[in-house]
Amino acid sequence: EKASVSYGLLTFREEFLSADTSLDSAERQQTRTKVIVEHIIQLWFSKSDWWDSIWVGKSLSSFLVYKLIEES
């Protein structure tokens, strides 16, 4: 996995973040942005106490990821 979330701390693999953006393809740059934004949003919206409401946070974070990437 490229990243993990635990108690408000985001961790990413070094090789995932430390790439030369001038050599990366547009697809790789978009994937990197998507993963980072998705994990930041999940810190806020995906923490649920009940299993039956987890879908709300996951769907909201997925929507916001694509909306934010589209805006940038």
UniProtKB/TrEMBL annotation:
Top-level taxon: Eukaryota
UniProt xrefs under InterPro entries: Peptidase_M4/M1_CTD_sf
Protein name listed in UniProt: Uncharacterized protein
Species per Swiss-Prot/TrEMBL record: Rotaria sordida
